[in-house]
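::Amino acid chain::
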Amino acid sequence: MGGVTTQDRADRADGADRADRTDRADRVPKQDRSRATRQRLLQAAVACLAEHGWAGSTVSVVAERAGVSRGAAQHHFPTREDLFTAAVEYVAEERSTALRDLFPEGAAGDRGAVLSALVDLFTGPLFRAALHLWVAASNEDQLRARVTELEARVGRETHRIAVDLLGADESRPGTRETVQGFLDMARGLGLANLLTDDTTRRERVVAQWAELLENALD
């Protein structure tokens, strides 16, 4: 019987290298598919919260909306609490991103436009989903700590971005409170919009606030 030749060893090495490349190429799409499935589940969880509230947002409902099986959903999020805790963070990140993307170049100059854009964030689906999470967190111990932590972070970032976009000088007495008062008002408008379309009244309120802020911040 002949021994293993140099060519045999080269062929084996080449075959192993091809197998390794194939395995790596196969893993990448699988990882991409896994990330895409997780993303769909989180987006579906947020949408379900916004439309159905906490009580109507089960893992099965979210999985169906995301177009995946319940088993696939539970592979990524074994429990309902796991799913919606992740959704809390997803909502917080998306709201922060939306804030940063309002005016990519920094301070916008037009305070009326800034106010309108900020109010729109408080009346959109992400804020609506966040509200349902707040309500759920008030009764769900596993959610409360995470929601409180993330909302505090989003609140700080919202205030900082609002100060920047409005060109507000917080070294002046009362400026911080003025900006925060507007954000509290915007949050209240978001709450009012839950039951009915409050667009017309909201536009008048925002216009009045823009005038008040021009006088208070200059």
About this structure: The mean pLDDT is 80.
